[in-house]
Design brief:
By secondary structure, the protein is an all-alpha fold. Helix content is 51%, strand content 0%. The chain has 4 helices and no strands. The longest helix is centred in the middle third of the chain and has 12 residues. It starts with a helix and ends with a helix. The model has no long low-confidence stretch (mean pLDDT 83).
Length: 67
Amino acid sequence: MFQIFTEREECKATAVATNSPFAEWDKTFGGPRLCAAIADRITFRCTLIQTGTESYRFRITEAERQS
């Protein structure tokens, strides 16, 4: 992932969507140093959109499990 983001930096648009807050990204990207490097690249001159909403897919999945 790091190499992909590095190669695309300032060359191509890249969209990243996640339900995880930034505080949990180190678990996804294998540690705090790598996470910081990736976040640095993808947030440079970016437009960050945080919806603050829960995934409707997750909500439906949970509802189906409880049925």
